[in-house]
Amino acid sequence: MTGTKFPELQQLERLIEQFGDRAQTQVIERIQYKNLEFPIHSITLGSTEPDVPVLAFFGGVHGLEKIGSEVILSFMQTICQLLDWDEEFLARLEKSRLVFVPIVNPVGVYLGTRSNGNGIDLMRNSPVEGVGATRLYGGHRISPHLPWYRGDAPNMEKEAQALCRVVKQEAFNSPLSIALDLHSGFGIKDRLWFSYASRKTPYPFIAETLALKELFDRCYRHHVYKIEPMCQEYVINGDLWDYLLDEFVQRSTAERLFIPLTLEMGSWLWLRKNPTHLFSRHGLFHPLLPHRLQRVFRRHFMLFDFLHRAILYPDKWARLDSVQKVHFENKASGLWYE
Fold first, then answer.
1. How far is CA 84 from the centre of its chain?
2. Which residue from 263, 294, 297, 303 has the fewest beta carbons nearer than 10 Å?
3. Are 35 and 1 in contact (CB under 8 A)?
4. How far apart are CA 292 and CA 273, in angstroms?
5. SS3 for 132?
6. Residue 42 and residue 103: Cα distance in Å, rounded?
7. Distance CA 243, CA 19 (A)
8. pLDDT in tens, 28-75
9. With contact defined as beta carbons under 8 Å apart, do 187 and 268 qualify?
């Protein structure tokens, strides 16, 4: 097998070199496609203690939506520079851990496809069955030649398994963890989605999620995100985050908290400004003009910084007493589920 370097992978490997021994890096899987081999890299910064909070970033699950990978790589480049001089940021890392898997689906990014090299949509690939997910985009087993194909094997794809291993190792063993998965392509608004994607019911940490949302709303009153459960938009089969969340709830203690979030960047906004991008495969899911790409890179760093601060100082949102928990659960029910 020979390795093939596409621009995002080249940028990631340059960053790994720049981080040097300030980060822990590993190849968590190697993906074969025809006569080529592609690595999936995981990069970890900060404390190695098991009891620190964790913030994890994932991108490129859908290869066609490579803007997610590029935003994470841009953020990692900023962090690489901060490590040289920002003592406040270094102090944060002594009490927390950041995890990055910027290119979960390297073959998809290389080919410019939503699916992996086997024609399987990784975000429809888990065993979770959606309640009422009967539409094609909800995930199907008809043919890999159609989009949203779930696969028909009992085992998940190597890329999906690699993502799950990182989450179980890093997030499940932490008392407080947030995972942020970056995608693009839905509507003209940036959405911050949380579980469930497979059913229209509140997930176990809905009270803490609403408390976190309200904290974000108070701190950044003019932020750009619509924050909602994914099931408000559509219900799907095989969602990896639902699969991981259900496993976390089954095996974890009441003291632990795991919140998976999906940032869905609204690519229709880019199309509205330049409709000719409809005729470009990448233009449907990726800003093509340099100034728009730079704007997207800047747009989400405030959110990343907030989430990092939130896991370090959880008293106002993650440590609710029984009365507060009931209050936020009832409020969430009226806001999102009635």
1. 27
2. 294
3. yes
4. 10
5. coil
6. 9
7. 32
8. 999 999 999 999 999 999 999 999 999 999 999 999 999 999 999 999
9. yes
CA–CA separation, 117 vs 287, rounded Å? 24
CA distances from 92 to 20, 220, 309, 311 (A): 19, 21, 8, 10
- The CA–CA distances, whole Å, from 259 to 39, 71, 72, 106 equal 27, 21, 19, 25
Phi then psi for 326, rounded to 5 degrees?
-65, -40
Q: Which amino acid is at 127?
A: P
Pairing mode of beta strands 24-33, 36-46: antiparallel
Averages of pLDDT over runs of 10 residues in the chain (338 residues) are 78 98 98 96 97 97 94 97 98 98 97 96 97 87 94 93 98 96 85 96 97 98 95 94 96 88 78 54 56 76 97 97 97 94
Distances (CA, A) of 114 to 111, 120, 212, 281, 318: 9, 8, 31, 11, 35
- CA-closest candidate to residue 89, choices 325, 331, 274, 304: 304
